[in-house]
# Entry
Amino acid sequence: MDLRAGTCGWAFDDWKATFYPDGVRDDLDYYSSVFRVVEIDSTWYRIPAAKTVTGWRQRTPAGFLFCPKLPGEITHERLLVDVEEPLQRFLDAIGLLGQRLGPIVVQLSPQFRADQLPRLEGFLHALPRSNRYAVEFRHRTWLEEPRALEILRELEMAVVMADHPWYPRIEEVTAPFAYIRLLGRRGVFPDFSRIHGPKDDALAHWAEVIAATTDLAEQVFVLVNNQFEGHSPRSVQRLLGLLAPELVPHVPDVRAAGPTQLSLIEDD
# Structure
């Protein structure tokens, strides 16, 4: 199994001198020397320029993977209706990543309910099969719609296993790869320079989930955001440290992240 663990984004001022050592001029270059995958959050807000995407490819080593989010214009504003034009623009731009393109995250709107399954099915069937996709359900009605997972299995698309207090928890492998996102509530931590709220029980649970996928998935992606514990590089390191050595030949060294510290803010 090929395990790829990384963070949701890489450009954070709070990481300077805590994850990025002093003197680092290219944060993506340094990031890709530590981790082998990153999720691109910025593509949810806007379709990147060709020059930007080409730069991402050129600044990272062979074998590194980017997992971009589908634009919110498609998933949240238009709710998958009349999206052919922005979808094609996005695919044309992100396709410039070439071999560095990982799964594309289809992050559905929290208002997108299970009774809209026919619309989702039509949209997923129209996506080019040359790419890989991971679909994240954010409305709890999807827990009562087994047909959704059947469609993903038929199309070999992954269901996102998301750790978030409000989103449905679906722990299924529906594709040759698995996709896990460890999320958290916005506005909880004062900064992202260190871990403020350790989630030891959650990390132990996801370590068990990862180990259980070894016979089910050829590749496992784990992406962690800063809101999960306060500092995602260190969270990734903590998670990988719980896994058997044969699953993680090399645990990234992020000692610059500083000591783990509890905050006065309670997180769930």
In short: Residues 256-268 have pLDDT under 50 and may be disordered. The longest strand covers residues 2-8. The domain at 2-257 is CATH 3.20.20.410 (TIM Barrel). The first helix runs from residue 27 to 34.
